[in-house]
Automatic annotation (TrEMBL):
The lineage of its organism: Bacteria, Bacillati, Chloroflexota, Ktedonobacteria, Ktedonobacterales. This is Uncharacterized protein. The chain crosses the membrane at residues 21-40. Keywords: Membrane, Transmembrane, Transmembrane helix. It comes from the Bacteria. The keyword Membrane applies.
Length: 61
């Protein structure tokens, strides 16, 4: 595990979404609903992004 400051630095650098839950080392058992919600949110984001033009698809000249 990274120290909290390192985790926060990486989150900001990746411009990641953060979801915090009171969990132990097995979140799929202690907060199953939270895990499911994160997976469903990721699927919605990926599905939405798949239907939008991406800056990665543009070729640089």
């Amino acid at each position: 595990m990274s120290v909290k400051e390192t985790q926060q630095f990486m989150v900001e650098r990746m411009k990641a979404k953060v979801r915090m839950y009171p969990v132990d080392h097995i979140p799929s058992l202690t907060v199953l609903g939270g895990v499911v919600n994160i997976i469903l949110e990721a699927l919605r984001d990926v599905s939405r992004d798949a239907h939008e033009p991406s800056h990665l698809d543009r070729q640089e000249n």
